[in-house]
Amino acid sequence: MEIRWNGLDEISALEKERIEARLASLEEEHQDLIDVRIAARPTNHHRHGGQEIHITCEARGQRIVAMRAREDLGLSLNEALDAFEREVRRMREKRMDRSTRRLPTPSVLGTVRRIFPDRGYGFVRTDGGKEVYFHRNAVHGGLDFRHLQEGQRVALDVEPGNKGLQAITINPPPPEAA
């Protein structure tokens, strides 16, 4: 998970560390949070005034957004983070509900076509000819994102994402399919 800060120069390094630790604890059990952006901007809203905090996160085909505005920047940041945590839990609960209703589908087989190690993602071409995006957090089963190579065979579970298909998991192919 990558965390980016924008417009929060007033926040101390210690406070940023505390918030990053809180976000990291959200990711401990689930590797579904990809890119978290925390941004602040002044607001002239007649009721809230002060600072408006936006927390935006890409999370496996979904975008989670939480925002709060208060006079105090710290209060605004903490309330936005609380709201963000609730949204992450809600997303995971929905996903768990869907996965218990869904019949297991066999993994799709494919070949790693392009990989961008510095950006943390790549693309797999399925045996059916479809291009599928994957993030480094989707790589499991003993595979290591840093050691994936173009042309390597993989098994993947796919779901619709914002811009097309994306892999939920990337695993080694079964022995009979390698």
As for the CATH topology of the largest domain, it is Double Stranded RNA Binding Domain
In oligomeric terms, what are we looking at? single chain
Characterize the overall form.
elongated
CATH class identity of the largest domain: Alpha Beta
Give a verbal description of the structure.
The chain is an alpha+beta fold. It has 2 domains: 2-101, Double Stranded RNA Binding Domain, CATH 3.30.160.100; 108-171, Nucleic acid-binding proteins (OB fold (Dihydrolipoamide Acetyltransferase, E2P)). It contains 2 helices and 9 strands, in the order βαβββαβββββ. A 5-stranded antiparallel beta sheet has the order 7-6-5-8-9, with no helix packed on it. A 4-stranded mixed beta sheet has the order 1-2-3-4, covered by helices on one side. Strand 6 (121-126) and strand 7 (131-135) form a beta hairpin.
Give keywords.
single chain, 178 residues, alpha+beta, Double Stranded RNA Binding Domain, OB fold (Dihydrolipoamide Acetyltransferase, E2P), 2 domains, five-stranded antiparallel sheet, four-stranded mixed sheet, 9 strands, 25% helix
Write the layout of secondary structure elements.
Elements: E1 2-6, H1 13-27, E2 35-42, E3 51-59, E4 62-70, H2 73-101, E5 108-116, E6 121-126, E7 131-135, E8 153-161, E9 164-171
Parallel strand pairs: 1-2
Antiparallel strand pairs: 2-3, 3-4, 5-6, 5-8, 6-7, 8-9
In short:
The chain is built from two helices and nine strands, in the order βαβββαβββββ. It has 178 residues and is of the alpha+beta class. The protein is elongated.
